[in-house]
Amino acid sequence: MKGVKSLSTNVRLALISLLICGLVFPIVMTGIGQVALPWQSNGSQVYYDGKSIGSELIAQNFTVPVFFHPRNDSASGVDPDITLKDAMSQVPRIHNATGISESVLNATLLKYRQYTLFFFGTPYVNVLEVNLYLVKTYPSIYSQYDQ
Amino acid sequence: MGALEVQPVGVIMLSIEDLFVVAVVWGVVIVFSWFFSKYLFTVFTGGKSRLDKFFKPIENFIYTLSGIESTKNMGWKEYFKALFYLNVAQAVIALFILMFQANLPLNPMHYQGMSWSLALNTVLSFSSNTNLQHYNGETTLSYLSQMSAIQFLQFTSAATGLAAGVAILRGFAGKARTIGNFYFDYVRSLTRVLLPLTFIATLVLIALGIPQSLGGYTSIPTLQKDAYEILYRGPIASLVSIMQLGTNGGGYFGANSAYPLQNPSQITDFLELGMMMFIPTATLFMFGRMVGDNREGRTLFLAAYAIYGIDLIIAFLPMAHTGRGLEIGYGGAASVFWTVTTTAFTTGSVNASLAAFNPVVILSGFIGMLIQGAPGGEGIGAMYLIMYVIVTIFLVGLMAGRTPEYLGIKIEGRDVKLAVMAFLTHPIIILVPTVLAFAIGAEKAAGLTANSIGFTQIFYEFTSSAANNGSDFLGASGNTIFFNVTTGIVMWLGRYLPMLFMLAIADSVAVRKRTPSQGLKTGTISFVVILVVSIFILTVLTFFPFLVLGPILQFLESFKTSLGGVIFAL
After folding, report:
1. Is A124 on the interface with B (CB under 8 A)?
2. Dist CA A67 CA A57 (whole Å)
3. What pLDDT score was predicted for residue B274?
4. Residues of chain B contacting A127 with CB distance shorter than 8 Å
5. Which of B65, B117, B143, B265 has the highest CB neighbour number within 10 Å of its CB?
């Protein structure tokens, strides 16, 4: 009888734990997130012309020469950032493809520069941010390449 | 989890800035966990608290519904049985959800159920706080599985580990003259520690960019014409909170904390690091409060952090060659810091591909996992530190020709035998299956060859399983029946056997007579030094031949091909 009681106790406690930790908690947090912080809760999506063009946290598949390209060897394969050095090495290609002067492109990169280790570490840029700026600033050049 | 990438490039050097970051993270965590240890002490000694008004009714409701007497003291057998059977019941429920997710709700992506061996591996992994993952969550698991199998077991395994750790510390502290009641410790771990902390953490992580949604995975046209991305929105923030605070480490994504939606920036990177360090560190301070002498907690804390610090120095030493496989936004040094921390605390989440690291970083990771108490996982890290204290006191006692004593308790033959059994569990369950895997050629099915790289990866797999860490090289390529079943068994043996042995010691010392200490003073800095040296000697020597065949050989091989390797080539 003691064994049966202990089995029933453990099964009941397991089910209560499931209910609290495995259902109520994540669902309540989803509710709070959706109401209080809807933009982040739904993946930090960037909007262009009123339409979502994907998450600013996920690297996009930029392949044509007019855009800055992300790298695709990192652990996740969707690192949205490239080092400033990497970005600057792409400037001549974009200049050749678009005719935008190299100094303007470099200045754009510096405008969107961020740092690892706060202000100490490696400077880098978010590829989507920079490309979106170019698309908005030079619509005549980019209209044939964007969605 | 790591994708199989090799040939690292680039250089990281430990700079003043990196040291600054480590110092800031350590400082903040240590200060906060010191204050939190006071709260933990009240929670687990049943002291009066202003929060009782809120928590007591919830806890009493849980006790009543389950038919629990939360005030009845348990012996070690009873405590362990309650713990083990509850964990079995939870594993069975989760197994059912994983295998039949296709027929259950909250599966908007229409994913199939898991195979029996993968589902078995997954529930043994998550119920033992290991979180080894032979699957990629975002392409395998339904929302229900992510919440009600994965997050569920992450909460309960953390609560179980904390409960067992607290019971053992309570027994040694001796004030209560018992190891306590499992259900009391387990329920309070959930209601008063894990749920409130994860509630706050989830909100902060959402604000910092981690999604929390049940809106389904959608394909979105991206900026360039005719390009698309799949946006994996899910209940990610709540999972990340418990995976770090509970030292679980199993991620929502296959790429774990390298995936930007699980770890969007450097701020979240450091925050998540701090979260995995928080409760294990506070538990060590809590021990001092339980004993009624903060120096005893300080000893465990200093020893654990000394080893953790040595691990960090080893990992940074070779100016580890890294680059590919690391995420730009966190910085290379932060990735090394993370890998060392995740193994030191046996969390096992990764923010970079393990294969991208210099073998020396991996060696440092091995040391963290083989020791398991530097500072180790939720509750269990403290347990291992006590185990090392017993063995160390015994060895010192032998040398000095005195009866070994700890906290005024005479350490008897049975205590030492049990502590050594707990210690020897790991070499046996790591080394035997590693050798077995190569003996039957199981490495080929996982796409590996029998060289130093393949050896490192399989040795790492079983070490990570036994230490309930969960980081690995194999990832989804480990999804073979051999690795699913063997690592599953190793994870449970590595979890429950040492727990059983240590509960048995704690229960017997709880009621043992205490006399003012005449032997070795354990609250002193000199004892910390003895303890650290003894932990290194015990652990590293046990595994040294295996470390030589794996990461050390790999390091020497890479050295041979570089300029400096001329000497080695001669």
Report:
1. yes
2. 17
3. 94
4. none
5. B143
Task: Mark yes or no for CB contact B220/A54 under 8 Å.
Answer: yes
CA distance B139 to B152: 19
Cβ of B86 and A122 within 8 Å?
Answer: no
Top-confidence residue, B72 or B473:
B72
Name the burial class of residue B259, with classes exposed (0-12), middle (13-18) and buried (19+) by CB atoms within 10 angstroms of its CB.
buried
Q: Which residues of B186-215 are buried (b: 16+ CB within 10 A; e: fewer)?
A: bbbbbbbbbbebbeebbbebbebbbbbbbb
pLDDT band for position B329 (cuts 50, 70, 90): low
**Can you tell me whether residue B198 is helix, strand or coil?**
helix
Q: Please write down the HEC assignment for all residues of B460-505.
A: HHHHHHHCCCCCCCCHHHHCCHHHHHHHHHHHHHHHHHHHHHHHHH
Q: What is the DSSP letter of B351?
A: S
Cis peptide bond N-terminal to B375, omega within 30: yes
**Among candidates B396, B400, B395, B397, which has minimal Cα distance to B423?**
B395
CB distance from B195 to chain A under 8 Å?
yes
| Partner A contacted by B266 (CB < 8 A) | yes
Structural domains counted in chain B: 1
Contact B183, A56 (CB under 8 A): no
Alpha-carbon distance of A81 to B318, in angstroms, equals 26
Beta partners for residue A47, in sequence order: A52
In a domain, B126, yes or no: yes
| pLDDT(B5) > 60 | no
Interface probe for B, chosen from A19, A42, A74 (most Cβ of B below 10 Å), is A74
First CA to last CA distance, chain A:
69
Cα separation of A58 and A76, whole Å?
Answer: 10
Answer for the pair B438, B546: CB distance below 8 angstroms, yes or no: no
A30 chain-B contacts, CB cut-off 8 A: 212-214, 235, 238
Over residues B107-131, mean pLDDT: 96
Instruction: State which residues form the domain around B252.
Output: 16-560
Concatenating the DSSP letter of every residue in B414-437 gives: HHHHHHHHHHHHHHHHHHHHHHHH
User: Hey, which residues does B325 pair with through a beta bridge?
Assistant: B323
Residue B340 contacts residue B361 (beta carbons within 8 Å): yes
Q: Where are the domains of chain A?
A: 2-40, 45-142
How far is the C-alpha of B410 from the C-alpha of B513, rounded, in Å? 8
Q: Is residue B569 part of a domain?
A: no
Instruction: Give residue B246's pLDDT band: very low, low, confident or very high (50, 70, 90).
Output: very high
| CB neighbour list of residue A28: distance below 8 Å, 6 or more residues apart | none
Strands B228-231 vs A123-126: parallel, antiparallel or unpaired: unpaired
How does the average pLDDT of chain B come out, rounded?
Answer: 90
Contact B208 A75 (CB under 8 A): no
Q: B70-101 burial, b if ≥16 CB within 10 A, otherwise e?
A: beeebebebbbbbbbbbbbbbbebbbebbbeb
B240 interaction partners in chain A (CB closer than 8 Å): none
Compute the residue count for chain B: 570
Instruction: Give the CA distances from residue B189 to residues B40, B157, B215, B360, in Å, rounded to whole numbers and listed in that order.
Output: 9, 10, 31, 37
Percent of chain B beyond pLDDT 90?
70
* Separation CA B178–CA B172 (nearest Å): 9
CB neighbour list of residue B492: distance below 8 Å, 6 or more residues apart: B124, B128
* DSSP codes, B215-266: S--EEEE-SBTT-EEEE--SBHHHHHHHHHHTT----SSTTGGGSTTTS-SH
